[in-house]
Design goal:
single chain; mainly alpha; two-stranded parallel sheet; 2 helices; 2 strands
Amino acid sequence: MKGEIPSPVPDTSSQALAQTGKDAVEQFINIYRDPTQPGPTIDPGLIIPPPARPYIPQLPVCIIGAGVSGLYIAMMLDSLGIKYELMEGSGRTGGRLYTHNFPKNAGKYQYYVSNIFD
């Protein structure tokens, strides 16, 4: 008819590809739904064993920093029987943790506010 727009021709290659994909998925699902059919298998002759692991000597672990984390890792390695070396740059352990001894009868303390008005 005059003035009528023809309907687009379907892309047969896309439809065929989509249908093939749907069929493959359906076949795969049906294999696992049917307990009478064996699932896909791999020929044991095609399996290549992994290469042998190289010998790695048991070297000590280096822990850098004797802060809380470093000391905890050292404790864990010690309980596992793994040798370690603990390196600390300062002359004390504990990292940023310090013990503060307050003088006796000194009064109230402001721990987090500096005395900016003095």
